């Protein structure tokens, strides 16, 4: 990957797994040999605080306001960064629109729950406002038992949206990893959370290289 790819992660609801997905994609990209930066647009600074608990140098995580996206992207590229992930605050608003505008792909984690699925039209509006850029819905935090994840994926696909074929199930490894400044791929490389994370990254990559 020579040119710089930019992936943003947005959602309307809080706590659906935006930061987990953003860091998971970033670490997968690092493990694949890329020079990776995460731009943290969330005033909660969850991704930035994660690096305080982390030993590895990459991904770089930088807290910036959305107004600094353009210049920060140029600076990152000048330093050889070739993969950028943008994490955003909940209640997708102007920061999310800006993130979408600069992204080759926007990933939207969705919990398989009606309350979250009801936010789809607003998220669609955000994508349009950001210039109708490519978007991928990702079922996140689905129970490992039963088929709520699959049902949600089928429902969202029927609405005409692109849904990731891999579901990121509710797995404790994500939480445990975050607590120690890691992602699931680092915390439990052979675990299911790691496997699903890598599949999501591979699918994301396939959309970026089309
Ligand atoms: N697939 C998952 N399995 C288990 N726990 C998860 C998963 N995804 C996220 N979590 C946990 O859920 C909590 C919220 O996740 P996260 O911070 O990634 O969500 P968020 O959408 O970024 O939240 P916010 O809206 O506050 O920014 C964290 O404790 C995280 O470890
Ligand atoms: Mg977050």
Description:
This protein is an alpha/beta fold. The chain has a single domain, classed as P-loop containing nucleotide triphosphate hydrolases (Rossmann fold, 3-Layer(aba) Sandwich). Helices cover 44% and strands 17% of the residues. The protein is built from ten helices and seven strands. It has a seven-stranded parallel sheet with strand order 3-2-4-1-5-6-7, sandwiched between helices. Helix 2 links the parallel strand 2 and strand 3. Helix 1 crosses helix 10. The longest helix has 17 residues. The mean pLDDT is 96. Bound molecules: adenosine-5'-triphosphate (ATP) and magnesium ion. This is CobQ/CobB/MinD/ParA nucleotide binding domain-containing protein. InterPro entries: CobQ/CobB/MinD/ParA_Nub-bd_dom (IPR002586), DNA_Partitioning_ATPase (IPR050678), P-loop_NTPase (IPR027417). Pfam families: CbiA.
Key attributes of the depicted protein:
CobQ/CobB/MinD/ParA nucleotide binding domain-containing protein, alpha/beta, CobQ/CobB/MinD/ParA_Nub-bd_dom, 44% helix, 10 helices, binds adenosine-5'-triphosphate, 210 residues, seven-stranded parallel sheet, Rossmann fold, single chain, 7 strands, binds magnesium ion
Please give the order of strands in the largest beta sheet. Answer: 3-2-4-1-5-6-7
What overall geometry do the principal axes of the alpha carbons give?
Answer: globular
Tally of strands: 7
From the alpha carbons, calculate the radius of gyration and give it in angstroms. Answer: 16 Å
CATH topology: Rossmann fold
List the secondary-structure elements in sequence, H or E. Answer: EHEHEHEHEHHEHEHHH
Overall number of domains: 1
Per DSSP, the total helix count is 10
CATH superfamily: P-loop containing nucleotide triphosphate hydrolases
User: Which ligands does the model contain, each kind named once?
Assistant: adenosine-5'-triphosphate, magnesium ion
Structural class: alpha/beta
């Amino acid at each position: 990957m020579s040119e710089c790819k930019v992936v943003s992660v947005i959602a309307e609801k809080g706590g659906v797994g935006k930061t987990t997905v953003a860091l998971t994609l970033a670490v997968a990209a690092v493990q694949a040999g890329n020079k990776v930066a995460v731009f943290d647009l969330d005033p909660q600074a969850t991704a930035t605080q994660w690096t305080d608990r982390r030993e590895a140098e990459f991904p770089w995580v930088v807290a910036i306001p959305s107004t600094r996206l353009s210049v920060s992207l140029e600076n990152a590229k000048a330093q050889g960064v070739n993969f950028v992930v943008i994490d955003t605050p909940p209640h997708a608003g102007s920061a999310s629109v800006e993130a979408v505008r600069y992204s080759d792909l926007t990933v939207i984690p969705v919990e398989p729950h009606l309350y979250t699925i009801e936010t789809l039209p607003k998220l669609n509006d955000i994508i349009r406002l950001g210039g109708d850029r490519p978007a991928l819905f990702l079922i996140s935090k689905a129970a490992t038992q039963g088929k709520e994840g699959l049902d949600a994926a089928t429902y969202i696909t029927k609405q005409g949206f692109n849904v990731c074929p891999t579901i990121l199930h509710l797995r404790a490894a994500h939480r445990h990893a975050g607590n120690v400044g890691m992602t699931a791929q680092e915390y439990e490389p052979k675990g299911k959370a790691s496997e699903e994370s890598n599949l999501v990254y591979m699918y994301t990559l396939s959309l970026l290289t089309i």
